[in-house]
Amino acid sequence: xxxxxxxxxxxxxxxxxxxxxxxxxxxxxxxxxxxxxxxxxxxxxxxxxxxxxxxxxxxxxxxxxxxxxxxxxxxxxxxxxxxxxxxxxxxxxxxxxxxxxxxxxxxxxxxxxxxxxxxxxxxxxxxxxxxxxxxxxxxxxxxxxxxxxxxxxxxxxxxxxxxxxxxxxxxxxxxxxxxxxxxxxxxxxxxxxxxxxxxxxxxxxxxxxxxxxxxxxxxxxxxxxxxxxxxxxxxxxxxxxxxxxxxxxxxxxxxxxxxxxxxxxxxxxxx
Length: 271
Fold this sequence. Notes:
Layout: E1 11-22, E2 25-36, E3 41-44, H1 51-59, E4 72-74, H2 82-88, E5 89-93, H3 106-115, H4 128-140, H5 156-168, E6 174-178, H6 186-201, E7 205-210, E8 222-227, E9 230-236, H7 237-240, H8 243-250, E10 254-259, E11 262-267
Parallel strand pairs: 3-7, 3-8, 5-6, 6-7
Antiparallel strand pairs: 1-2, 1-4, 8-9, 10-11
């Protein structure tokens, strides 16, 4: 059963004084970060700030500079198995759709999530139970009706939600949304944001990577600001999503509007 909104569980990730260095240059430094089960957080910052590297620290695609005290822990473990992390963490990115180059029913794409493939796996026998799990994942996002439609005939927004279902079918505790609304029209943006809200309410931890406060659904109450390869602020979104703070973050004059828990950004243009 999903953990209810607002009820936090055990600590999943902790990063302390971690530096990622490439070609002698620090591309990310994180002083202190912890994520508990059921907690939601947004990473906000300009292009090249280090947001993707932050996620790669969690997934162990990159490793920090060695220290006697390990800088990154997963459930308190210094050297977790990648399979353990994969079991609890799913990733949905705006580029995943580009990887689908075959015609296949949407439900086959979702079933592939059970086996880590984009489509039905060749080396495993798919069961009726697998298909039922896939259909339930699609239904949780309100798109069970596209189960037998060719994924390449769907709108970009529908296809994006199919890919969310592909990760959801494994029942992860954490879902990373990496620029989830890039390339979508307003309808697609609405439904993807609605999906994030639905999953957050069910107790799935949401980690959102974005440039835009508009993507930060009301359930996300914590925001990390990343600039120049450093997480330099971490706090409640009411403090982080202010005009003067975001103007400093992006280096241009900005105004923030708030309506019923949703934040939007616009330029502070002179007369």
